[in-house]
Amino acid sequence: MAPSTDPSIWNQPVSVPEEAISYVDDAVIEKMPEGTKVLSIARSGSSYWAQTAKITTVNSKGNEISYFIKVNQGEDGHKLVRGEYHSMTTLYDAMPELVVKPYGYGSYKKMEDTHFFLCSFHELKNGVPDINVFPALVAELHNRKTSPDGTFGFPYETYGGRLPQFFPVSTSWEETFASGLQRTFNGEEKSQGYDEDMAQLRGAIMNKVIPRLIRPLETGPDKIQPRLVHGDLWDGNCAIDVKTGKPVIFDATCLWAHSEYELGPWQPLRHTINQRYIERVREDMRKLVEKFPHGYQEVS
């Protein structure tokens, strides 16, 4: 279970050794239900950053259960699996019918500095979810609940690919978003060096665009509420489950945000989930707000 990425476009080998998916470490087994017996492990899916595999097991009742494991290494690898686990757990708790089930994360016992994230295995179809189904599910996810304490952000560092990102917890979406974007700009400058044009763009965005665009959204009776978003919901992080025929989402970098933050990855023309999906999400969200003016949880 992994997005249908094409390894041929990435000319660097995965840094994690294949040994990491040649066996099932005891630390991984401990995250499975008691009485689980491992039958096999085999490479499955593709990733530019991690080793990925399908683990086939039999549970205590004799039923065959499969898991999906992602293995990373190093300090960043540990923070990556930790952030993904907490992101996926938060999403799964909100809408389990849409989200791949997380089972745990941790560090290998036999291999040094090797870390894993374990979740349910799903055989996936190529292609993106149906526009007549998926936008409504995304809108429902956003409408299911608001932040329990009314804050934006997320308490854990998450990773977009290999790039760390952090949106600090705050009562202000402007503050949370600006802090996260500043970190992105800092990382770009550290990686690529100082560029005058980029510096001017950065100044304009941080000092003019964000205050003028976001600040008004946080005032008045209709101010935005912190909604739970996947955080990186592009074509490669959603698919159709072969068994159920329904959409599933994975590889989350979630946070509590303005719901339209979710739609950013749908803007690039190269993506199949595009402007048409954005229009449908907005339409479906309007319908949900009209039906549940005080939030979905009032009837849950």
UniProtKB/TrEMBL annotation:
Molecular function terms, GO-annotated: protein-ribulosamine 3-kinase activity
EC number: 2.7.1.172
Catalytic reaction annotation: N(6)-D-ribulosyl-L-lysyl-[protein] + ATP = N(6)-(3-O-phospho-D-ribulosyl)-L-lysyl-[protein] + ADP + H(+)
Highest taxon above the source species: Eukaryota
Major enzyme class: transferase
Pfam families cross-referenced by the UniProt entry: Fructosamin_kin
Transmembrane annotation, as ranges: none
Protein name: protein-ribulosamine 3-kinase
Native organism: Xylaria arbuscula
